[in-house]
């Protein structure tokens, strides 16, 4: 069965009459063919989506399909087959509704191409991984490279807007934590102790971009102030210099790893390199001395710091690599890496820990 067959039976499906359609099928026979394909040849929901993404064609005969599933289930004597037909209809309808939501969201984006950020703010919960997979499926249905490119560009713009929105929410929380750290630094008994606290935070990788921006901002305000005492300006300057020195001194390996990953253009190769970075192997195995290994948690932390620095104020950050992130494709790759680590590694660890807990009680 292909899209040509689907198109050929559209008129008959609409009229709901038993006339012959392409390749000798009546409407009932055609729906039976779809049922057979979905139950036997392509029983995975991801395969069904390739048919249901063709919305205009599917809508023209979808009611006939659901009606046929119901009629066959009612007439079926085999309880097992009856349940299969009922489940098939329910599952396909669920995907049908999902595809319709994605299509409606896509239409809103296409009708308002300059309001992507506003739409993301209003409908963030609808920009799921399934929506972006839907865009990929949709792109594959286009024969024109121009049409495919248009969908890909829209997807990239949406990813960038979602990343900015999510990081803004995270930054609100991180600013509160950063403010507490900053106040603790300011309450130090001496400048030397305050600078030592900054160094300790850097070593513990807790000198995040939000705190850096607070310190930078405090120094900028003090430097321009005509009323602030010189002693206060001196304190802010020393804190600012200590922060810059600490950021340069730690040179986290994760930043180097990210630069390597972001320069890989092929997605499969990039994800393979990511998996390798998390799998150094047994201590007795031969390791590549030039390779960089880390944990999902650590790399995820530095990805968030890079995104924070980029979206909050990339001009003020001391992370040189964040200043260089001026290409949307780089930000998109960074966002996808973040999502991949969360979905494929961090969530797995949480599930594993939950599975172990009952045995320990």
UniProtKB/TrEMBL annotation:
Coiled-coil features, chain-numbered ranges: 85-112
InterPro entries for the chain: At4g37920-like (IPR040320)
Record's protein name: Cytosolic oligopeptidase A
Record carries keyword rRNA-binding: no
Keywords tagged on the record: Coiled coil
CC terms in the record's Gene Ontology section: chloroplast envelope; chloroplast thylakoid membrane
